[in-house]
Amino acid sequence: MSAKIISGKLLSQKLNSSLKNSIDQIKGIRAPKLTILQIGDNPASNKYIKHKLKSCKNVGIDCDHIKLDQNTTESELEKIIIDLNKNNKVDGVLVQLPLPNQINEKIIKNLIDPKKDADGFNPITLGNVLLDDTEIYPATPLGIIKLLESENINLAGANVTIIGRSNIVGKPLASILINKSATVTICNTKTKNLAKVCKNADILISAAGSANLVTKKFVNKRMTVIDVGSNFVNGKYCGDVDYDKVKKIVKYITPVPGGVGPMTIACLLENVFKLYLNNIK
Ligand code: GUN
């Protein structure tokens, strides 16, 4: 038996179309507006931003892309963010990561007003995620939850193992799952006996950024596997999971591409819409 494939492409299309309807219904008021700040010309960032711009356009979000020179200083970027924070016509601000070395990412994440925090990376937003007291969630963890819920996969009481302890995926995802009464184990690539720790999970989520990390040894036949990896191997885009072999064993699996990636963008757009609704109140 082969696993059921959970398509983030299809689910994100449904979410985007429902968001477009909601935006269309608010007639007479301006469109929601997102500003994306990019510093430098990182090829992966160029690709991600292209997708974000296209998706914004499709649902009716007005999106400005400000591309700054690689040598932009921290204080120059700070000034732009402070102006955007004050600009009432801008609902969401997103600073594309990674940033060049001269700019301190922590300072920038702190500076974006939580009321405009489209990515959900501000420590205040993340604190509220931990406390289960927020409307805005980082987009990738929220997308993963929506993928699981779309298949009615039980979270309460489930043993969920996450590989990856990043601030933008692993940690907020663990908080959301804990708040939904899952039993969560967070590993990383240095975890001893990683395959053994993962093997008995009901849900295995890999956000390690390491191609072919998750092999047959990591999985069982009851398992749902969510692949958050975004890797290039010999010019080919792939996740963290040895997909062809693992999908023959497990119950559910997400593909790469077409799994978590499009859900991240759909949830980002939902965040912008929520920020907009609060802003125009
Ligand atoms: N770089 C890679 N993924 C992301 C993301 O979700 N948001 C931002 N701002 N930068 C990224």
TrEMBL record:
Protein name from the UniProt record: Bifunctional protein FolD
Any GO BP: purine nucleotide biosynthetic process
Keywords annotated in UniProt: Amino-acid biosynthesis, Histidine biosynthesis, Hydrolase, Methionine biosynthesis, Multifunctional enzyme, NADP, One-carbon metabolism, Oxidoreductase, Purine biosynthesis
Organism: Spiroplasma litorale
Annotated pathway: One-carbon metabolism; tetrahydrofolate interconversion
Limits of the Tetrahydrofolate dehydrogenase/cyclohydrolase catalytic domain: 6-119
Subunit structure: Homodimer.
Family that this chain belongs to: Belongs to the tetrahydrofolate dehydrogenase/cyclohydrolase family.
Residues binding NADP(+): G164, R165, S166
UniProt keyword Hydrolase, yes or no: yes
EC number of the protein: 1.5.1.5, 3.5.4.9
Pfam family, one: THF_DHG_CYH
A molecular function (GO) term: methylenetetrahydrofolate dehydrogenase (NADP+) activity
Catalysed reactions listed for this entry: (6R)-5,10-methenyltetrahydrofolate + H2O = (6R)-10-formyltetrahydrofolate + H(+); (6R)-5,10-methylene-5,6,7,8-tetrahydrofolate + NADP(+) = (6R)-5,10-methenyltetrahydrofolate + NADPH
Segments forming domain Tetrahydrofolate dehydrogenase/cyclohydrolase NAD(P)-binding: 138-276
Function: Catalyzes the oxidation of 5,10-methylenetetrahydrofolate to 5,10-methenyltetrahydrofolate and then the hydrolysis of 5,10-methenyltetrahydrofolate to 10-formyltetrahydrofolate.
Gene Ontology cellular component terms for the protein in this record: cytosol
Xref: Gene3D superfamilies: Leucine Dehydrogenase, chain A, domain 1 (3.40.50.10860), NAD(P)-binding Rossmann-like Domain (3.40.50.720)
